[in-house]
Fold:
Amino acid sequence: MTFCRALIERTELSESRREDSGRIRSVAYRCVAFALAFPFAACAPIIAHGPDVHSGFSGGVSAALGSGPTYENGDDPGPFYLGAVAINAAYGIRPESDARAAFRFGVQAPTGGAVSVDVFAQTPRKWLGPLSAGAGILAEVSRGRQMPYVQAGVRNEEGFGVNLAVARYWDHDSRAASDINERAQVNWLSFELPLARWAAIHLHTGYASGHVKKTYDRQTVTYVDEDRWVRLGGVTLEFHR
Structure:
């Protein structure tokens, strides 16, 4: 009798895992189609994780799209670029004690830019109770693009969550004949939906506004000097332990 009960439980677990895998594959295919529908040139830097650090390795794929004005020099709709589609990987360190901080060390590989690092520190869980919060920085390795941010949110036991990220973005790109300076306030509101114990989908919406200045001939001639804004949307498919 015990053997039969164990066999039934094992069968039910296998069926549950197959259902989870099928659901994950379906969502993954939709996310890939969603990402491929985007132009590969423009979006704002995206915070592709929540404020509650997962222990161990995690990874995923993100896609973001900006909508807004097309400016006179052809920037579309800009102004803050870091790749429309990005693959990310990270390692989280979460101490057993809730009185100690947790850390996440990540990398992003966007289609429209160089590899970026994303370092995030979460405040001890004991401090804020059900609220998770912390601060981090997203920065390109080979260029001057940087985006320090703070992030806070909640997530229940089932894995459903919501969080807000508030960031300051800047980019200074000096080339042989031109100089580009971008500054912006970037805000992301994200919703986390569990797909399985080891997978979740994040839906992002946001807004960025700031100033863009472009000059050439050793900064003696200015051809762009104006405020700009963009509405943001995106999705992240995340896998974790």
In short: DSSP finds two helices and ten strands in the chain.
